[in-house]
Amino acid sequence: MGNRWTRSGSSLTLLPERQSSERRGEDQDSDNDSLDGLGRREDIAQFPYVEFTGRDSITCPTCQGTGRIPSGQVNELVALIPYSDQRLQPQRTKLYVVLSVVLCLFTSALVAFFLFPRSVVVVDAGIRSVTVHFDHTNMKVLMNMTSTLNFSNPNFFSVLVQSVNCQVLYMKTVIGTKQLDNATTILPLSESQVNYTVSVEIGSSAAYVYAFCTMPSIKVHNIVVLMQTAVKTSYMVRTSQNSLEAYRYIDCGSNTTYYQKTQQH
Fold it and tell me: DSSP characters for 49-99?
């Protein structure tokens, strides 16, 4: 290695070349430290936008070289996002699809359970009472038969009993009819009763019935009649009809009798 001559004022000083190299290295390290320091980074952050133009450069068409987007063009510009951007990749897609399908099925099941129409149960509860009168002049037996129908509504909505039609037959001959319109409204998940009275007349077609019913030597004057009942109900957009038949034992010799056990078909 050689020596290096330096001049200070009017004198010359001989310095080793290695010492000069060390000083140059120290100066470079101090520059790097200052470049990486916080103060240097703040200076760079405050450095304004500069449009470097040259022979091959193109001025930015969006900001026109100012570095700022005009406020009037905010709603007109479209930002380009790379295809690999995470915002373009759906997250938990399968989970959302499965949850949506399960929710739809559950909602459909609930709607079907609550709104699916169920048949209204109609039960003939029999005769409550029978009032008997005699027309001795015309040899007729006149009776008023009061019957009861029990309704059970298993639906989650009200049911309207539109009509009740009943006819009473004796030996295949119609001896009385009754029709009720808009009899009652049955509330959801509840039961209701409908009472109706049928006027019956047994006359010239069966004159022997008058003789049998007025015979004093017989204590019980039972006759058998057939009651045919048709019930029409409506709920939502559905209309249904129930048909009932029952044979009744009636004591035609007394003024009033109450319901006795009957055989239904």
Answer: P-----SS----TTTTTSSS--GGGTTT------TT-GGGS-SSHHHHHHH
Asked if 164 and 151 touch (Cβ cutoff 8 Å), the reply is no
For the chain, count helices (H), then strands (E).
4, 11
Q: What is the DSSP string of 189-257?
A: TEEEEEEEEEEEEE-GGGHHHHHHHT-TT-S--EEEEEEEEEEEEEETTEEEEEEEEEEEEEETTSSEE
pLDDT confidence tier of residue 241, bands split at 50, 70 and 90: very high
- Model pLDDT, residue 9: 44
CA–CA separation, 155 and 114 (whole Å):
8
Residue 179 three-state SS: strand
Which residues are CB-neighbours of 237 under 8 A, at least 6 positions away? Answer: none
**C-alpha to C-alpha distance for 253 and 56, rounded to whole angstroms:** 126
Rounded to whole angstroms, the Cα distance separating 72 from 69 reads: 8
DSSP state of 120: P
d(CA 124, CA 246): 8
Question: Which residue is associated with the tokens 């004796």?
Answer: 170
Residue 57 identity: S
| DSSP track, 160-176 | EEEEEEEEEEETTEEEE
Overall average pLDDT of the 169-175 stretch: 91
Query: Among all chains, which residue has been given the structure tokens 């240097």?
Result: 40
Q: Helix (H, G, I), strand (E, B), or coil: what is residue 31? A: helix
What is the dihedral sign for C-alpha 42, 44, 45, 48?
Answer: positive
Please report, as a single letter, which amino acid is at residue 161. V
Q: Give the pTM.
A: 0.60
| Contact indicator for 130, 97 with CB cutoff of 8 Å | no
